[in-house]
Amino acid sequence: MLCNRIKHLSIGQRLYPIKNHVAAYCSNIQAIDMSYDVFESKNSDNNLSPLIIMHGLFGSKQNWRGVGRALASKMNRKVITVDARNHGNSPHTDDHGSKSMAADIVQLMHRLNFQKISVLGHSMGGRTMMYFALKYPEMVDKGIIADISPISIPGDISIMSKILLAMKNINIPSDVPMAAGRQLANAQLIKVVPSKETVDFVLLNLRRSDDGKYYWIHNVDALYNNMSGFTKYSETIGGLPPFKGPIMFICGKNSPYVELLKIF
User: Fold this and answer.
1) For the AB hydrolase-1 domain, which residue ranges apply (predicted)?
2) Which of 114, 149, 200, 219 has CB atoms 3.0–4.6 Å from 86's, for a disulfide?
3) pTM score, two decimals?
């Protein structure tokens, strides 16, 4: 009954009407303020829905900086790239899943005063944007889902768990300079990571504090502890009505997700 009486959600010093978003609030999801970048051209049309882009696992808004700038210029609309929770410069939380990350999108829209958006999500971000479109269809104009399927996920999800476990167990002495530290991390990761390109991508997240301690900018513990949720996506979206707006699915020619999308 309490949820039926809730009319506004307090964020900072402002109150926002939550209307159809009561479900997210009542499910005990604590939304976070994501770190984001905004790109827009001189000819941006404010009548066009802004595009919000969310990256995949181990990624960040920096991966989409060039794309965001190019899309803003070509489409003459505002483009926002975000750091998902537990990634990049966004806050760390114990909870990590499509529902919580979709709640973060809702909160970002309130912060930026957006009523309706277009969405682009890659991999993990694609799962988030699919759930967001299904849960809050009135807030979505159109969307692009890159290299992920709503049906299932290939068996190599176990590799992601192995990568995260290796990241958790990496130990680099604080007196080792950054270049040497990366080499040590590389030597340990290459034992479980299938390709050098993937290792190089993961190593983009390695940092060294002022006191010499090495750390990952991502919340490795939370990602590792929530990895099993990636295999239960059908349960996450089960029971939600279909999204009736325009959606485009994109995959690379050699992507292991292509066949799954053909089935879809």
Assistant:
1) 50-154
2) 219
3) 0.85
